[in-house]
Prior knowledge:
With 358 residues, the chain is α/β, with parallel strands linked by helices. It is built from 13 helices and eight strands.
Amino acid sequence: MNAFHYKSLPLDVYFDNGKSKETKEILNQHGYQKVLVLTTPEQEDAGQELVQQLGDIAVGVYPHAVMHVPVEVANKAIDFVQENNIDCCLALGGGSTIGLAKAIALKIHTPIVAIPTTYAGSEMTTVYGLTENNLKTTGKDIHVLPKVVIYDPELSVTLPAEISACSGMNAMAHAVEALYAQDKNPIISLMATDSIQALKVALPAIVKNTHDLEARQKATYGAWLAGICLGSVGMAIHHKICHTLGGTFNLPHAQAHAITLAYSVHYNRNADVEAMDRLAGALGVASREDVGMAIYQLNQSLNIPLALKDIGLPEQGPAEVARIICDSPYYNPRGYDYDELLDLLTKAYLGLPPIKIN
Ligand code: NAD
């Protein structure tokens, strides 16, 4: 066995159907008395319900979270938190809402309690992102890690089927890349494998019936594990492709992850044999040669859009993405081959399978 270093992050995690109903008691245990509930505009009503539940310790809802945390949005929120002496930001939502709480914590260290309602996994990481002049910068800071995370699968039943599917595949991408991470370790690999298996089973059931609570529970469990993977080890080529698709072409985050994962794993299929054999096992296919197709077919069964052109990538996109990732690569177990990447990204652009089908 190879040498490894494993470090766990300090945060409390609660997981149960209906657990968010105990949010007030959990906040009380931590001594928070002036709590601001953060949401997107779309989830403001859910935020208001939470405020009702919290009673005298809630200051109100701040429903201004938007995708990719624009600096102006973050600065306004920071002013609001300071003016109102908020002692805890309670983020109810997905990566965008948790991202706003992180931007506040980065600047003024206001503790975060997160109630995730998608599968993106941001709640388990020290990674923050901020967007200024259309440029997204990311970094790591321990202050942005939530103190407490409350997973309540019941809250995700309102997440529409397509967003659920893409968000779940976004989570799977964290787990997949953790398997062949530069700093991979045995505990994270176990979590990654369990995460992939859980998501693979849960997502088709959710797309069939968004109110299937057992499937929601399984997907939330898989997403939690995937979030730990993302927060613990470095990511590789797939995350580089998606950061380029989001940063340079403003493609929607979860959809871009969902579409490109099949091509990233196909590219890496023979790179880290142990990891890719493990991935094949988790996906239930015979060989690592089949992992790309297995994910492509899973996407098909989940009704996820298959082509990057359908979510906004222009025709010159594949060549530009291939050039950018070859010019400033992340670690990857296999080197960067421009021609092969261009071929795969062109297939992703058109929505063709990662391998030729006779
Ligand atoms: P999101 O937070 O933007 O949510 C998508 C939409 O779904 C929003 O309109 C939201 O209000 C709505 N929604 C969320 N939960 C719902 C529910 N249960 N019912 C109904 N509607 C619901 O999407 P996301 O994919 O979770 O987050 C994407 C953002 O998170 C990106 O900016 C990405 O970069 C960031 N992210 C950061 C990290 C990190 O570690 N820092 C990790 C993953 C993602």
